[in-house]
Amino acid sequence: MTMIESTNLEISNTQNEAVHPIRSGVLNALISGLKLILIPTDCSDHSRISIKYGIRLAQESNATIKLICVQESFDSDEDQEIASESAEGQNTRACTKLKQFWESFQKEIPCELEVRKGDVVSEVINAAKKEACDLIIMSSHGYKGLIYSMKGSTTEKVTRYAPCPVLCVKNEGRQFIA
To answer: Is residue 12 a part of any domain in this protein?
Structure first.
């Protein structure tokens, strides 16, 4: 049995309640091993929470963040019009959007930005394997219903196939960061 000593690091939730010392010790053990955190994003307001968690963990552990945005394949007629735009133009536009999204957080910590094209789950898993990521942080929409339960969510699929731990965060409910 391994004992994890608690240090003075005190993480609080949004109600400013101190986290139990045992939880703090576990967090310290997790944080000490982080070198690279992968955060997939679609640059939406909903995905901002995963960036906030990533920034906090990166600051505590001196880890680097790799922020990726995956452009999915095109299915609808409207998407076909976008697809007719040159691949280079699409990539440039996506890179600019991702860079502006990251800059909106105004944090000076190491971050690598990457735009990929393909299936979101496959590209996230491939990036995590290629870069030997220590943690993936994703936001979850929390959709419910028959369609979603049969199809499965992107976050759930990444969690199932990821080569490293996945932290799934929600926008609603209790948060541990501000």
So the answer is: no
Give the orientation angle of helix 21-32 with respect to helix 48-61, to 10 degrees. Answer: 80
Residue 100 lies in a domain: yes
**Which residue range is the domain that position 114 belongs to?**
39-169
Q: How far is CA 173 from CA 15, 138, 170, in A?
A: 11, 16, 7
List pLDDT tens digits, range 43-100.
988 889 999 999 999 988 899 999 999 988 655 555 555 555 566 677 788 888 999 9
DSSP assigned state of 176: S
Residue 104 lies inside a defined structural domain of this protein: yes
CATH number where 127 lies:
3.40.50.620
Overall domain count for the chain: 1
Give residue 106's pLDDT.
77
Q: Which tokens sit at 47?
A: 């995905």
Compute the Cα dihedral for 143, 149, 176, 49 and give only its sign.
Answer: negative
Check: pTM over 0.85? Answer yes or no.
Answer: no
